[in-house]
Structure formats: C-alpha cells, structure tokens
Amino acid sequence: MPPADRDFDGKPSDPVDQLVIQLRAYVARGREKPKQDAKKATATARRDSISDPDAPRTPPSEWVLIFDCETHTTPDQRLRFGGYQLRYKGQLWERGAFYEPKALEEPEKTLLRQFMAKEEPGPDGERIRLLKRSDFVEEVFYKSGFAVGAQIVGFNLPFDLSRLAIEHESARRGMRGGFSLRLSEEARWPRVAVKHLSQRAALIRFTGLRKEDKAEEEEVDPDAPHESEEKADPDRGYFVDVKTLAAALTSGSHSLESLSELLQVPTKKEPSEEHGGPLTEDYIRYGLRDVQTTWECFDALAKRFATFNLDDTGLYDLYSEASLGKAYLKTMKIAPWRKLQPDFPPQLLGQILSASHGELRVKG
Where along the chain do its domains lie? Predict the structure, then answer.
C-alpha cells in the first residue's frame, strides 16, 4: 500500500506506512436467551435439527435419483432439456428426459419426442418417459425422490437445481447467506436451500414450510409430507454432489470428464461442440449419456467409501477431506474436545489460536 501522508482531519502529516494486519480470534457464544414456552422450544428444536448437519437423522432409502440439465449459452443459462435416471438398489427403474416448453422451438420438441419414442429399455426393463420440467419436478423429483427419501445426485448439483427453479430468494436461519429455490407451484412441496461453502462444496437441503404455506397446504392435501407438529425429525433430504464427493475422497478438483477418466468408468464423459446450437439427436444423446456417466462415477465413489466402514456417515455428509476425518473420529466415538472441557477459558483459547500456525503434508 502507498504511505499515508494525511491525518484524520485531512491535514499533512509525517508519512506512515499502511500495512494490512490479519488477526485470528475465538468468538464465544453469547448468553442463552430466556427460556421459551414449551411449544416454542419444541419448534426451535425442530428448526435446529434442519440447520445442524450433525443432528441425528434416519438414513436414506435405497432409491437414487440422478439428473443433469442442458442449458442455453446465453447469460441466463436457461434450461433447455435434461436427462434423469431413477434407480433402486442400483437397478435402473426409470429413465428419461425432461424439457422446458418455452425454451425449445416446435421442431426441437418434435425431435425430442421422436428421439425418446425410439428409445428402448435395457436389461433392467426400465420405464422410459419424456416429461415437461414441471411434471418432472412434481412426479419424479418430489414424489419419487423427496417422498421416498432417495439420494438426489448430480454433478455440480447446485447449478442443476437452480435450473429447475421457478423462483428464488435469500435463504434464512441456518442457511442464511445462501439461496432458497422454489421448484414447484404446489405449496405442499418444500423449497430447496443452497449455501456455498467453497468452490467445491455447498450445503443443500429441503427447507421447512412457512406458516402461510402450511395453511394453504392443508387445504390442498393435509396428508402431504411436510414439517408438521407430529414430525419430530424434518426430512432435509439427501443431496449428493458428485463433484464434492470426489473432492473429499480424492483430494482433488475434477470435471466430470477428468473424474470419469480417473475412475475408469465404462461410460466416459464425451465433449460436445453443440452447446447453444439447434437441438440435434447427437446433442440429446450427449445429455442422456452425461446422466449415465454421473451415475457410474457416483457408484464407483460410493463403493470406495463403503470400504472405509464409516457406517455412521453418509455420502451426503461429506463436504471435504475434513469431513472424512471427522467421520473417523465419530466412528471411533471420540467426542469433540469442547464437549469434554466446556469450561476451558475462552480467553486462553483465543490467545492460543492467535499464535498458532501449522501446515500438514501427507504423502499419498
């Protein structure tokens, strides 16, 4: 920085070098709020179970939904079409394509319909469908994904989720600083909140429903899944970004192409020069192939993680290499130090943190 030669009043003074000073600090929690009444306390506990990644939760079902979106190359990157697979215990149950009607020309819609009509089931005898974006969100994403507790999988998942959104706003509470995405016109389905932690990772979860949404929902379908008074463990979903999972397990950043090469999956990612151009059969085939590649990479990483025997941690809990280390400590029943010594002076801890600096290098 250039030296400052003016004081606070703007008068000339002796030049002083301006230096950037970085400080580390330990911030202690403030005083506990006054005790709430029982109903409010219960609601707070349920809200915290959504925002706390370490809160106990039931494991996902054996269903997996994988999807991928292809977009325009204009700044809005609007959804054109996408592909998906719905699997049960690894077996392909349903696959297909979805599209945004207003983003395709009539000849392109006709081509897409004709292409999907010629698709034939594979060895698993799966169902093949072509859906509008709204129908995919309603019938596949929510009814076959959210409602059955499926793992929802994609590569760079925050981007693909945002392409399905019809509205967005700033997220609240534990996801403050992120985005809340509305995917469906139906009030009974929760939004999806996304909060980036780094270039590699983001927190992704279903949100609770607002009071006005709940009231509207009860008129539409009182039995629809939502955060109700009876539901003690709100389902925040099981989202797995293969890009994040790969970074946690391989300690490196990957594109889908480089990851498919690293893992040597059968269906390698192939490049395409048709992004933004008129829809063609080759481009549709490219989009559907990406879904298969994503599944194969997810499956390979899941099998690798299974060998670690970290049964208390799910793939949806891994955000970085640090998450992996934390999972080992959890499996070994090693409690966090602060829980064992809650009365350790925070002033002393602040001094230790301010003076500490370390670097860890591990040979692979």
Answer: 60-306
- CB-based burial, 143-180: b 16+ in 10 Å, e otherwise: ebbbebbbbbbbbbbbbbbbbbbeeeeebeebbeebbb
Characterize the bridge pairing of strands 63-71 and 12-16. unpaired
Cα torsion through 295, 296, 302, 307, rounded to 10: 170
In tens, the pLDDT along 180-229 reads 999 999 999 999 999 999 888 999 999 876 544 444 443 333 333 333 33
Q: How many whole angstroms separate alpha carbon 66 and alpha carbon 85? A: 5
Closest CA to 246 of 301, 202, 295: 301
Print burial letters for 82-113: b (CB count within 10 Å at least 16), e (below 16).
bbbbbbeeeebbbbbbbbbeebbeeebbebbe
The pTM assigned to this predicted structure is: 0.77
Q: List, for residues 117-157, the tens digit of each pLDDT value.
A: 999 999 999 999 999 999 999 999 999 889 999 999 999 99
**CATH T-level assignment (fold) for domain 60-306:** Nucleotidyltransferase; domain 5 (3.30.420)
